[in-house]
Amino acid sequence: MKYLIFSDIHSVEKSYKVFKKLIGKIDYDKAVFLGDIAGYEEVSIGILKDIVTLKSFTGVLGNCDKHLIVHSKPEILTYLGTVKRGTLIIDNNFAICHASPDSDKGYMATQTDAEAAFTYLKNINIKILFFGHIHSPKIFCMDNENEVASLAVNPEIILDNDSHYAICPGSIGLSRAQNSQSSFILYDSSLKSIKYYMMNPTH
Description:
Strand order of the largest sheet: 4-3-2-1-12-13-10
Distance between the termini: 31 Å
Order of helices and strands: EHEHEHEEEHEEEEEEE
Number of strands: 13
């Protein structure tokens, strides 16, 4: 299976349009969203209507999405029916969350931050967690000796079957990456490969 994994749109319509143009050329089986479709005070109805049409769309809510729950617009209700709160296991293959397995607000930005995520993965017997919220690509790895490291974000990465990973695809909107590029991931579960796609900043 090939999973399109992306996060943190924050209602930036220009960035979302660039993203949609890029994924039109990508072969994937399922679109997986890691939360924060909403901006800090608003939400794009156009993005809400479109995102649910992506192939086999699923995802989780982010911290900025909480105010959507009080709305009754049909587009918002349709979207809320496709995403879950908290952490979600996808096809018994990998887990997803917005910020961390136990919080939708904390930042998983350091190796120390990632240690709790690896404890969670071991408890559920899953090797990979995809997370968002930090708006920048990040890869943490715990090897079979329980050593945690931060890995270089290369364009393509083959995952080791014996290691655990916590991986952030970056963000579609409001990137905080050093080069200010937005980004997302294609994960091939058969090949155990990660491919990062970078987008020119449009925010």
